[in-house]
What we know:
By secondary structure, the protein is mainly alpha-helical. It has a single domain (12-202, 275-394, 406-457), classed as MFS general substrate transporter like domains (Growth Hormone, Chain: A), CATH 1.20.1250.20. The protein has helices spanning 12-39, 43-49, 55-81, 83-103, 107-135, 141-166, 173-180, 182-195, 201-206, 210-221, 228-248, 253-256, 259-277, 280-293, 299-319, 326-350, 366-395, 404-430, 438-459, 468-477; strands at 352-354, 361-363, 491-492, 495-500, 503-506.
Amino acid sequence: MHSSLLRPAARPWRTIVVAAGATLGGVAFGYDMGAIEGIMQMDSWMKHFLETPIGPIGIRGVYFGGAVAGSVFSLAVSLVAGRRATLIVATVIFASYIPFQMVATTPLPALDGRFVAGIGGGMFSAIVPLYLAETSPAASRSTAIVAFLVAVSGAEILGNGVSYFCARLPSAASYIIPSSISIVWASLLMAALLYIIPESPYLLISKNMEDSAASALSCLLGVPRSHPSVTVTIYKIKSFYDSEVEHRGKTTRKLLFRGENLKRLLTGMGVHLLKHAMGAGFLFRYGHRMLAQLNVPNATARQAIMGAVQISGLVTAILSLKAVSHRSALLIGAVCMCLLLNVICFISVYLTAQDSATGALTTLNEATTAALATLSCVGIFIHASTWGARSWAISAEIFPAIYRPYCMPLTITIHWLAALISDIIVSYLIDMGKPNMFSVFSAVWGAMCIPCFVFVWFCIRNTDNCSLVNVNIIQTQLTLRHRTPSWVLPTTAGRPTVRQNSLCIENNDDVPPFSL
């Protein structure tokens, strides 16, 4: 059959609409995170909730704990009910936190609400990238996942801005209204899940439901079920899935933590753990403090500035996906972050002073303050454009099909655990009056960039723009020489191809331009 017959009809809008609908999950929990950061600045909210020992650290910690629980819970639900059903459950759980927030007048209901919201956010963060990886074209898979992160960051700024404008309202309405707006995002996502978003063809094939998988793929591509691209793609996926089952055996917990599967799982976990070990959370809070000293006293304005820098970094990552491989971007990010954090350490040691009475950190002049604020923003930009964006794309694609629904939620669990630990450390330094430790921890985080570089050099392979089938083959068969930046898939007659067992997968023609 001629390769042109295997290509889907030109309806990219259909895939874009499905990806945008799934991305609403990121908008929902991103808006919530931004709104609660703004709410915690309100006098009316502080009067009710911050007279107790919980404080902002406790509120954020409860949310992160809920996110850890949610990412683990999403694993069980997605295996039984599927990706789409898991997102529906996550939406219901997320929306159920709103009544807690609206009726809360004491700390306990507020904490319950944050924990429930965290469960929903953790489920969204685990399943949405997994769904996007399985339903996006190979050439735009990473773009879709990074766009999800852009939606999260943009929604955070929006939530913080809504909280700022509602802060002038009297009494409890100031924090009830920002929280209640979350129901809008949850409602839009539920509508998309019910009427637009199909189930992942991968899951349906794993359950031997080829007819349903063909219908889902037809919906994703916007072509009839009888179109050759649907028929051949389903056949290829089914063939490769059966090959995997024959080669690896049925999925079991015992096999999940052995051999090649364990190596990939540790790679996915490691890239998220090391991402937080590079000090991005520290740069956010440190930059906030420096901007405050530069006469930007409004916390919402500072949040908007830092958020805009992060979004610009993520957009840069999207624009550079074709030109720079994941591996090269991570290596560049590790080197640049190491240099930048050590420069901040040098300035903190020699050009800042600490008030002996209050412990407050002050700079010797305004130029030093501006330099530290600028360096913090540059660090956020570098991190977002490299590790912040690429880590999600890597963890969404490196796992074999039969273990992907297990491994992806587990790696996101590590992401939230690392975020919790990082937030505790940074809060201890900044919110609890330990600014004299800034320089020490700048040096520590700068030193952590060295193991990050080593980790990428030995563990991350080039899998950019490959179908998930080819990504699996690369992860299984290829050795150290295939990790070099210049390596590409070997070609036959100008077309990339690799072999596993007797099955030949050709990246551009024999498999349609789809990530299956």
